[in-house]
Amino acid sequence: MVTNQSVSVALGEAYQVTRRGGRALLTEFLNPQRFAGFVDEARASAFRIDTVEYLHDRLWYQFESWFKAVRHRAASAGSFAA
Predict the structure, then answer these.
(1) pLDDT (tens digit, 9 = 90+) per residue, 4-50?
(2) Are residues 36 and 67 in the same domain?
(3) 12 and 43: one domain?
């Protein structure tokens, strides 16, 4: 189980190994309901936050559904082998 303390420790360790002036992409994908809290924790860390974007719950599943629809449509038109 991930606790606020373990997230804080992980953010601190990530900051230490990030090259000075470097960038890190931080995400909370296992529990989207925790996203706002995770952003607060990231802001409280040593990282300087440039941008915060919510990429929706399980973004890959949205893309996967889209790809399946496109593949099905293309297969119906005869342009792809399924």
Answers:
(1) 688 889 899 999 999 888 888 887 777 778 888 889 999 999 999 98
(2) no
(3) yes
Instruction: Output the pLDDT for position 82.
Output: 47
Q: Is the pTM of this model over 0.85?
A: no
C-beta separation of 75 from 82 below 8 A: yes
Residues 63 and 46 in one domain: no
Tokens 């719950």 label which residue? Answer: 57
Locate all alpha helices (DSSP H) within 21-78, ordered by sequence: 35-44, 59-77
Residue 71 domain boundaries: 58-82
CA dist list (Å): 65 to 19, 54, 59, 69: 37, 19, 10, 6
**Structural domains in the chain (count):** 2
Using CA atoms, how far apart are residues 30 and 51, in angstroms rounded to an integer?
20
CA 23 to chain CA mean position, Å: 15
